[in-house]
Write a structure and sequence with these properties.
The complex is a heterodimer of chains A (255) and B (265). With 255 residues, chain A is an all-alpha fold. Chain A is built from 11 helices and no strands. The chains are: A mainly alpha (255), B alpha/beta (265).
Chain lengths: 255, 265
């Protein structure tokens, strides 16, 4: 390992615990400890993974889930950012929204699923709506906190240099809050996977959540694990992509 | 550059500022009367907490007075005032050139004209090479140059400066003082400059206003007789400079002592 840079070596070290877990898991099952019908070995899961990829089934479910997450994320995040900034800029907006957020944020969003099925039917719309609602709250709270904590001097500068409310909104408050907005978006991304997969357990025939639930009903435990692992992988990939977007969008953030 | 056009005229009469502090009211400024002539460079010194920054913020329209009047006449100036803050206040999310052009963008100056004026302002303060940098990539002195460029580029009738060099090291301070004098002598805008340094007030200004400790009142106004253009370094080494500095220090000393006694009570 002497040929590797310190950073690459550190990254490799991060692999020790997950790989170790998989090895222990595999070995225990091969030694006959645990029932392989209920707890498949990592090698069984890998085989099933490849098979589901080969017939295109997994890709289809992944595509459906990503589509719902993406759409719901965008629909929830954009108004959350806008309203969060307006709350920081205008007291009446804050007074209007503060109690609503305090009351609605703690409600488990998955509890709204039956209501959304009534409102939007069994198609994609109800799942997208659920994701949007779940994304809205962490994003609006983070946006407001970020904007409210912008140092006073920047408000003063903007005012002294003739900024209109529009310039204030688009050039000062938005960018000033952007690092904190990104923190909210990152939380929202994880939350959107959590609520979406749960919502896909019922009333749909597609998506990773459906794959997991359906394989449970058929007692295909290895397929179930494929679904679970896939969610993990999707979460990892999207969060890495997200960090890249953040680096590009917030170039002034000090390392 | 033509020096025909002179800066704004300022007339402050009976200015008073009170603010709420806990259960009581604090009188920050009281009966301030001051006339500032067009193109004059006035420095205000006083002990910490004497309300000199409050006075400047009222002039800048960032705060409102409790009583009294301020009249500013700035005919022929598109922008009445621009402020240079103690910490530069450059927006961290904008490049240096976007920061410098901010006051033009807000006022709807066309892109071509704005670019030209930003170019000139960056050149004036020696930041042309750093125009694409973000503020966190610059030293404190460079950030303050950027803040000065941002103020000058809007071509304001009066320039309000709130201890702009207080956070800099001694060398940078001397360099920036000299540059400010050079730039100002070309444009002759009216300047109101807050400082806690007597030396700085004497090096830069035409008049020095000494304020009292809380409540802030005008204690003495001193004419600074040194001719222009000024060589900041040579001036600070001269005998007259030393004498005047001592005179003002005596005046200020009473106030500083009084302020301390006030605090220890």
């Amino acid at each position: 390992m002497s040929g590797l840079s310190g950073k690459a070596r550190e990254r490799l070290l991060y692999l020790i615990s997950p790989i170790g877990l998989l090895v222990v898991w595999q070995v225990l099952l091969m030694l006959g400890i645990g029932d392989r019908r209920f707890i498949p070995a990592p090698s069984d899961i890998a085989q099933r993974f490849v098979k589901l990829m080969a017939n295109g089934e997994l890709e289809w479910h992944v595509a459906v889930t990503l589509y719902r997450v993406f759409l719901g994320f965008v629909i929830g995040a954009i108004p959350a950012v806008a309203v969060g900034l307006l709350m920081a800029m205008f007291k009446p907006v804050r007074i209007f929204f503060d109690p609503l957020i305090a009351a609605l944020f703690p409600i488990p969003k998955i509890a709204l699923m039956p209501l959304l099925l009534l409102a939007f039917g069994f198609g994609d719309a109800s799942k997208v709506a659920l994701v949007a609602i779940a994304v809205f709250f962490p994003v609006i709270v983070n946006t407001y906190v970020g904007a409210a904590n912008i140092e006073k001097i920047y408000w003063d500068v903007a005012k002294n240099y003739g900024a209109s409310q529009m310039v204030m909104f688009t050039r000062v408050v938005f960018f000033g809050a952007l690092p904190t907005i990104f923190a909210g978006l990152r939380i929202a991304l994880a939350v959107s996977f959590i609520v979406l997969v749960a919502s896909e357990f019922v009333a749909t025939k597609s998506g990773i959540g459906y794959l997991i639930w359906n394989s449970w009903e058929l007692l295909q435990v290895d397929t179930m694990f494929v679904g679970i692992v896939t969610i993990g992988i999707l979460g990892l990939i999207t969060s890495v992509l997200f960090q890249e977007v953040e680096r590009w969008a917030v170039p002034w953030k000090m390392e | 550059m033509a020096v025909e056009r002179r800066g704004a005229a300022i007339e402050i009469a009976g200015l008073r500022k009170e603010y709420l502090s806990g259960p009581g009211r604090v009188l920050a400024l009281d009966s301030i009367d001051l006339r500032i002539a067009p193109g004059e460079f006035v420095c205000i010194v006083g002990p910490s907490g004497c309300g000199k920054s409050t006075l400047l913020r009222i002039l800048a329209g960032l705060d409102t007075q409790t009583g009294g009047t301020i009249k500013v006449e700035a005919p022929g100036w598109a922008v009445q005032n621009a402020m240079v803050f103690q910490e530069s206040g450059l927006f961290p999310w904008m490049s240096v050139e976007a920061n410098v052009g901010f006051g033009l963008m807000t006022r709807g100056v066309g892109a071509a004209e704005a670019a030209e004026r930003v170019d000139a302002a960056l050149k004036l303060v020696g930041l042309t090479r750093f125009r694409k940098h973000y503020p966190h990539q610059l030293s404190g002195g460079m950030r303050q140059r950027g803040a000065i460029a941002r103020a000058f580029v809007t071509d304001p009738g009066m320039l309000l400066m709130d201890e702009p060099f207080a956070a800099l090291d001694a060398q940078n301070r001397v360099i920036l003082q000299a540059e400010l004098v050079r730039i100002w002598e070309q444009t002759r805008k009216t300047v109101v400059y807050i400082t806690h340094s007597i030396e700085e007030a004497l090096l830069l200004g035409d008049r020095t206003v000494v304020m009292t400790a809380q409540p802030g009142r005008l204690k003495r106004i001193i004419d600074v007789p040194f001719p222009r253009p000024r060589d900041v370094l040579a001036l600070s080494a001269s005998a007259e400079f030393g004498k005047l500095r001592l005179d003002i220090w005596r005046v200020l000393e009473e106030e500083v002592t009084r302020a301390r006694a006030e605090m220890e009570k």
